[in-house]
Amino acid sequence: MPNTTNTALITGASRGLGLALARSLAAAGWNLVLTARGAAELERVAAELGATALPGDVTDPEHVRRLARAAPELNLLVNNASDLGVTPLPPLAGYPLEAFRVLLETNVTAPLALIQATLPALRAAGGSIVNVTSDAATGAYEGWGGYGATKAALEQLSNVLAAEEPDVRVWWVDPGEMNTRMLADAVGREEAAGAADPAKVAAALSGLVGSRPTSGRVSLQ
Questions:
Q1: Which of 13, 55, 160, 162 sits at a 20 to 30 Å CA gap from 133?
Q2: What predicted TM-score, i.e. pTM, was given to this entire model?
Q3: Which of 90-94, 145-149, 151-155, 175-179 has the lowest mean pLDDT?
């Protein structure tokens, strides 16, 4: 009999939203290929969920190729891994340009590279792509210009990709503020503690993946 198990590839899967989504999809019976830079954390998650762990840096072209080879049949790609950039968050007038180039590489170029590498499998499966973005892509928040600019670029990349790939669902998803290490690094632990639980956001994201609406921007909060 043909294999009917759905397979998802999730980046940034060792903590925060990536970890919460991996748990949600595993509970629904998905086969998971997970990646993150922290090998020890990722291996623990993979052991918990019975998933495949491939630690590495998504800006590394060889790692991207390794991820694509690990999922020759793929139903869902989740580009969740991203970097906050310089902290404390600086104004654009003083943003270090080399740091901004690195941020673009992580938050924009790396997701596109992984999309390109996995598109043949996603086309064959009539699959889906989730690009995790932010309200910083559309709002003028002081200090968030560097990070927000990369997320705005990711949103437009997703928008055009959706027009070019009508057989693949493409959603650029704004999860809202979540109680994660990244938010704590930006605003402090006390303020971050009042944000949404990533598990609740992941449940909404799992519902989106299951219902497969038309491609577009989605806000989960």
A1: 55
A2: 0.95
A3: 175-179
